[in-house]
Amino acid sequence: MATPFTPLTNTKHGEKYRPIKVSDIVGNEDAGYRLQVIARDRNMPNLILSGPSGTGKTTSILALAHELLGANYREAVLELNASDDRGIDVVRNKIKMFAQKKVTLPPGRHKVIILDEADRCTVSIETDDGNLLKFHTLSDHEILGRLMVVVEAEKVPYVPEGLEAIIFTADGDMRQALNNLQAIYSGFRFVNQENVFKVCNQPHPLHVKNMVKHVLEGKFDDACSGLKQLYDLGYSPTDIITTLF
């Protein structure tokens, strides 16, 4: 029996398929180019990365830190995630202690502090437009490209419609796409539409499509019946409306 492949995401020290070079980041070419210039010039300014979840913000900064700091990059990077207390005590203690820690770095390089979900930070953060990098949701083609790398490397059995369903459920979020792929393979060992929508707990789009078709044909009772079927299956109104949208 095949064994599940190594976890792709949510591991403390990085993921199996997370890029370690800025040039390998999928999508958001403008932001990626800016980061490649920083890596080339070896001069990292304060930066704010803005954009939806799963579009490569943290991955990009970690890749940049890896290129700038070399072998000691883990010792020279401090990540504070959304669950951390972001008050003034953190700034005075965690960050100050990290800044004072002795780490051997290449000449002219500096430690990197990452404030993930910085909009929740209670400390004032200022930047100018020149230091703001905006990330956007990834295209279906970009997500498919990375999914193909993983399924081929891990020899994951799939049908094209299964990967299309993963892309649909991810909605431009690469992390979500990889998480879904792993969950489906771990649970069913085969990626097809049926298994995707079971794992992702979303109404099947074809069912919702039929509801819309009934409305367009004036068959409102049939449309309402289809809606009730989804509701009786346990899907929340938000799940149904999101898929309908």
UniProtKB/TrEMBL annotation:
GO cellular component, one term: nucleus
GO molecular function, one term: ATP binding
Residues covered by the AAA+ ATPase domain: 43-157
Entry keyword Ribosomal protein: no
Signal peptide: none
InterPro entries referenced in this protein's UniProt entry, alphabetically: AAA+_ATPase (IPR003593), ATPase_AAA_core (IPR003959), DNA_pol3_clamp-load_cplx_C (IPR008921), DNA_Rep/Repair_Clamp_Loader (IPR050238), P-loop_NTPase (IPR027417), Rep_factorC_C (IPR013748), RFC_lid (IPR047854)
One GO-annotated biological process of the protein: DNA-templated DNA replication
CDD domains attached to this UniProt entry: AAA (cd00009), HLD_clamp_RFC (cd18140)
Keyword presence, Zinc-finger: no
Tree of life domain: Eukaryota
Pfam families named among the record's database cross-references: AAA, Rep_fac_C
Alphabetized UniProt keyword annotations: ATP-binding, DNA replication, Nucleotide-binding
Record's subunit section: Heterotetramer of subunits RFC2, RFC3, RFC4 and RFC5 that can form a complex with RFC1.
Record-stated family: Belongs to the activator 1 small subunits family.
PANTHER family attached to this UniProt entry: REPLICATION FACTOR C / DNA POLYMERASE III GAMMA-TAU SUBUNIT, REPLICATION FACTOR C SUBUNIT 2
Full protein name: ATPase, AAA-type, core
Species whose genome carries this gene: Dillenia turbinata
